[in-house]
Amino acid sequence: MSASTISAADVKALRDRTGAGMMDCKAALQEAGGDVDKAIEILRVKGQAQAAKRGERAASEGLVESYIHAGGKIGVLVEVNCETDFVARNEDFRAFVRDLALHIAAAAPQYVSEDEVPAEVREAEQRIYEEQAQDRPEQARPKIVEGRWRKWLEENVLLHQKHVHDEKHGGRTIEQLRAEVSAKTGENVVIRRFARFVVGEE
């Protein structure tokens, strides 16, 4: 389909389905040769980049999801916010939140984001890495410390963790999955907080 045969109605229909801008919809339809499903896929890929920009928008709707594991020995509560009640009822959003609760039960993160890690924890960890790197050439030490800190974040910070269902999610991190849901729904999606309970654990 040439650019001249893509009608305003086609563009509007795509916009209604995706929430993307008119010019983006027109460009996606042209790139997809008029194939609507392909155009939606193009917009979704671009939307992941745009999802980062949505981070400033207020997210005051959402869900609290619970997950109980191991015969009642581990329990999780997680709150994930979005901008509208409409998206809070969206199946992609709800599936993400359910999957997230399961992940938290299995992966036991300590913090949602790197920003939440207390400065004293960061400093203590990095002091240990610096001591461990003393036998390495001096110019290599900062890189070693940085590498070990990144590894610590991947183990302890939710957004940096790869989802425990590796086969289902293809090794993507929780942050990548969050950005995908944000792109699909066209809203700012925020993992607000979680609590993980283990029987007998202080």
CATH superfamily of the largest domain: Elongation factor Ts, dimerisation domain
- Stretches where pLDDT is under 50 for at least 5 consecutive residues are none
Secondary structure: number of strands:
3
Helix proportion range:
40-55%
Mean pLDDT equals 87
> What is the number of domains?
3
Supply the number of helical segments: 9
CATH topology of the largest domain: Tetrahydropterin Synthase, Chain A
Rg, alpha carbons: 21 Å
CATH architecture of the largest domain: 2-Layer Sandwich
- Main sheet: strand order: 1-2-3
User: What is the SS-derived class?
Assistant: alpha+beta
Proportion in β-strands = 5-15%
Order of helices and strands: HHHEEHHHHHHE
Oligomer status: single chain
CATH class of the largest domain: Alpha Beta
Structure, explained:
- The structure is a single chain.
- The chain is globular and about 65 Å long.
- It has a 3-stranded antiparallel sheet with strand order 1-2-3.
- Helix 2 (22-31) crosses helix 3.
- By secondary structure, it is an alpha+beta fold.
- The model has no long low-confidence stretch (mean pLDDT 87).
- It has helices at 8-18, 22-31, 36-53, 85-88, 91-107, 119-132, 141-156, 166-169, 174-185, and strands spanning 61-69, 74-82, 190-198.
- 52% of the residues lie in helices and 13% in strands.
- The longest helix is centred in the first third of the chain and has 18 residues, at 36-53.
- Strand 1 and strand 2 form a beta hairpin.
- The chain folds into 3 domains: 3-55, Helicase, Ruva Protein, domain 3, CATH 1.10.8; 59-113 and 157-198, Elongation factor Ts, dimerisation domain (Tetrahydropterin Synthase, Chain A, 2-Layer Sandwich); 118-150, no CATH class.
- The chain is built from 9 helices and 3 strands, in the order H-H-H-E-E-H-H-H-H-H-H-E.
